[in-house]
Amino acid sequence: MKNPNDGFVKGRLRSLKFAFRGTWLLITTEDSIKAQIAIAIIATILGFYFNISNIEWMFQFMVIGMVLVAESLNTAVEKIADFIHPDFHVKIGFIKDIAAGAPTFAAIISLIISGFIYIPKIILLF
Ligand SMILES: Nc1ncnc2c1ncn2[C@@H]1O[C@H](COP(=O)(O)OP(=O)(O)OP(=O)(O)O)[C@@H](O)[C@H]1O
């Protein structure tokens, strides 16, 4: 919560501290984020193995970021939904399904981009 006595710089630094705490919480407590980080590590190893270009690295990190952001926001929506209505409700199910669509969109795009980067390199192996 905002402290009215904080100046601009102090207020921003305080927000940054909470944001890093949130990032740490996501990494350490959420299985979906852990899974995405594991995939990101594998993709990075593949990037080194296939010696991908700078542009390909940029696209790879962009889609990794996109998936992590979407997954994190989906987690936040799930937490809010569970908090405001812990019991079963059709609308909560609908909201959670819609929210889960966001990381799914990101994952589909990341698969397409991975295909562009790696399929030609894998074909060259044979
Ligand atoms: N309270 C609820 N009422 C109705 N349906 C729900 C409710 N909670 C979950 N669901 C249904 O179950 C699905 C999975 O919900 P859950 O909260 O377990 O998300 P998840 O994607 O499995 O979680 P995570 O991303 O943490 O693995 C939802 O998309 C929704 O269809």
Q: Determine and state the CATH class.
A: Mainly Alpha
Give the rounded overall mean pLDDT: 95
Instruction: Please tell me the CATH architecture by its name.
Output: Orthogonal Bundle
> What's the number of structural domains?
1
Radius of gyration: 19 Å
**Low-confidence parts:** none
The number of helices is 4
What is the β-strand count?
A: 0
Pfam families: DAGK_prokar (PF01219)
InterPro entries: DAGK (IPR000829), DAGK_sf (IPR036945), UDPK (IPR033717)
Subcellular location: Cell membrane
Membrane topology: Multi-pass membrane protein
Topology:
Elements (H helix, E strand, L loop, with lengths): L7 H22 L1 H19 L4 H31 L5 H36 L1
The structure holds adenosine-5'-triphosphate.
Adenosine-5'-triphosphate binds next to helix 4.
